[in-house]
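Continuing the batch. This is chain 6 of the set; chains 1 through 5 are on the previous pages. Same settings as before, nothing changed between runs. Recording input and output for traceability.
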Amino acid sequence: MKAGLGSAAGNEGVGDPGFIPPDVHAIAQLFPKLEILELIGKGGMGAVYKARQPTLDRLVALKILPPRPGTDPGFAERFAREARALAKLSHPNIVAVYDFGQAQGLHYFIMEYIDGPNLRRIEQAGKLSPKEALQIIPQICEALQYAHDEGIVHRDIKPENVLLDKKGRVKIADFGLAKILGLEAKDLRLTGTRDVMGTLHYMAPEQVQHPQEVDHRADIYSLGVVFYEMLTGDLPLGRFAPPSQKVQVDVRLDEVVLHALEREPERRYQQASQVKSALETIASQPASTPPAGADAKLEQLRKQVRGPAIGLLVTGILNWVLMPFIVMFGLPALSRMRGVSLARVPLGHADLLGVGLSKLAVLGLVAVPFILCSFLIYAALKMIRLEAYGLAIAAAIVALFVTPGNCVGFPLGIWALVVLTRRDVREAFQQTQAANVAAGNTPGKRSALLWLIPAGILLILTSFVLLRQLHPPLSEPAATTIFLRSFETGERPISLDLNRVPGGAWAVSCTQTQTFRLFEVTDPGVQNCRLIYRAKMKTEGLAGRAYLEMWCRFPGKGEFFSRGLDNVLSGSNDWAAYETPFFLKLGEQPDLVRLNLVVEGAGKVFVKDVELLAGPANSSDGAR
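Output for chain 6:
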């Protein structure tokens, strides 16, 4: 954000929080010697405008203070005194004040224009590393030490008042709340006995309790708060941990920060220059080795995590080894057990494997475990290095359920969850992550791609093998007789004239020639083979004959039938198997097969165990 004196986030405390700044046109009339460009910020202490000073051809920041109520007659004198104090400050790390005054009741400052963000915006954007913090704090120290030497206390050091220009130089803004030291008692009253200047969380304890008795050491406390927040992202509230226990930073910085945050002014650094000297000493000497105890504890936790992590890794690898064998051998074996052909069921058919799954569903069921196993291996490798805590938790859960390795992965997943949910283990992950960030070794996408690319290649190859099984070449005839569909005893025939009888059979009594529709098979997905319609039948007192009839419908060609006239039965017969074939040429693929029972004459006919099979086109397997 662009700002001149302070940020548009505002300076809470003194001032009118409901202050509505004049528009650009109104301000331009009050300041004819300035070219008012835009309003760039508004806060409790006023509004800041970006302006151009034509006589000097430079950009400036114009800060307008809100009008003071008539009950504060000493404001004009206080403003003049503090403005003169600001004008004395000439330092490369302090926003310069060029002019001040009053225009139609509005008090104003004309200041150096800083084209850059404040520290708060940089922190919120997540672009501030510990290394950059160590470059910023010494510059703040230089500015504060200079102001303190001039007898001025800032009293409102906070991220909003620390600006960085485009070259990365620090500029301290908003010394407008500072007061001159060494004044007589009558001058102290000019500040207002009820004003508690500064922002609460950044204020020294004595600044809250006795605001009229603070000295420059209050700025050092505020500097300690800002430094702590820059390193950890948190404010030092209540009982807070040293920075090195929250993030991976040099443990020697703990002493600097905690010394600046002493509650008693006498126990803090007495000069801002001392803070700068301490930081320069740390920067000039190699970082000390972490305490042996802390390093040993981290290594011990790493060993404790390594066990379940390796277990998860083995589970993922086991799944990867077993899954191709299941695809290549398990699915065909299961299909044969269920009496269904993988190759003869169309892609969208809802009865693959005889369990209501289409080929697309089977492909999805195969792909999902491969993907999850890939994730499991990748997360386990990260877990071994104490990286990616969230992925480690997810991998432990995945290991519980992904087959076929979950027989091993279930206990390993529970073990991993028990270890990962421990507080000291979570903190070890956080410490490792902070160390990687501080060292600039944040894991990128390359490590994930190095694993996912070969995993994807293996998945594609396995899917190709599965598709070859699901879709063999069209010119390849069926090698053996395979079941396309068998109808269970509980399935009701289409014709309502058939009645259920004991033994899982259906019976019909006829007085004349009739054709009974039994079942239909939609899209059997076969060609270049011999369809076989098979069923068991028996008769009682049939005066005539009964036989099986099969109709095949071909898109755009019509329907054709085949009758088992060489496999008929009449009179009274016990149960026997009967069938009728239908020969399909290459390219002939029916989209509907009808299975009928034809009775010519009078009598009673029983039927059960209806099946549709596919056999080699040149085979006589099963013929009577």
